Structure formats: structure tokens, C-alpha cells
Amino acid sequence: MGRPSIKAERTAEILNAYEQCVARFGIEGATLERVASQAGLARALIRHNVGNRDALFDALVERFFDVSEQRVVDLIAALPERDRAPVLIDILFDVRHGNDTHVLVAEALIAAAADRPALAKRMKNWIDDFVSAIAAVLRHSYPDAAQGRVTAVATGVTGIYFNVDSLAMLGGMTDLRRNSKEAALLLVCTLED
Description:
Blueprint: H1 7-29, H2 32-39, H3 43-49, H4 53-78, H5 84-92, H6 100-112, H7 117-141, H8 147-167, H9 174-189
Helix pairs in contact: 1-2, 1-4, 1-6, 4-7, 5-9, 7-8, 8-9
């Protein structure tokens, strides 16, 4: 009987290291040497388990979208049946639910999308899907609100949320987070009219 393959485990380690490097140095700065150092592996093992930089980038993109989708599914599943909208806002703007690495990888992918039309399309769909998920929660909480207003408010909440998350790594953004949460709640309250 042969030894069990550790390729899946090794690939996960490499992708974790690559995410950390992308978060710190961006796509271009996340060299195979840096990834190997972060993972504590020889560069040859990265090539053996994942492939070249293009393959590594492609794996990161797929992982990013898989993780993002699961995070939204988990977020929606965590909401109560009643008062979903305010709980959603609480979760979105609670620093305990953030993931700095994921945010920085998202920002790096958005920057990389400028030269990659297929990635740009996927990133746009990613944002559209997030807005749609927020809109679905708002429609549940405010069933009488006009569809256009619900979409506009969901878009506004998304913009506020992404702005705060993108600035969180600066540190000391407690006031910005608190005030942004309040702005999002005020925006949601316009659906009561």
C-alpha cells in the first residue's frame, strides 16, 4: 500500500502562503520565492503541487470566489427570521466578522482585473451577487418597499461596507466603522417610508 498523498494539504498550505503574500505585496510582489519562504517550502514544491505563477494565480482566484460565496451563504444563514436587516448591518460592520487578508486579496484582484477582462467580469459579478444578497435580506425585511429603492439601498450599504473594510487595515478606524454602520442603518431606514 502506497503512502497517502499530501498534495491537497500541501496545496492548501501554499495557497494560504500565497494569500498572505498577495495581501502584503500585491499580485506582482507575491513572487514564488516569497510564497516559498512564507510556506516554509522549497520553490520546487510550489511548482510541483500548484504549478507556475499563472497556475498559482488561477488557484487563488478560484479559492477567493469559493470562500466569498461561502461567507455570504453563512452570513445569510446566520440571520434570524425577524429583524434581519439590522442584524445584517450589525454583522457587516462588526470587526469580529472581518477578514483582513480576504479584503486585501479582494483589493489586489480588483487591481489585477484592470489587465484581465475575464477577471474583471468575474469581479463585477461578485459585487453584483453581493448586492443581490443584501437586497434579498432587505426585501424580506421591507416587503412593501419599491424594488428600485431596495436595490439602491443595498448598493449603498455595499459601498459603505466595502469602503470601511478597505480602510480597516490602517488601524484606529473605530469611529469610521461606528459612523459607517450608523449611516448604513439610516439608509436602510429609508425603506420604511
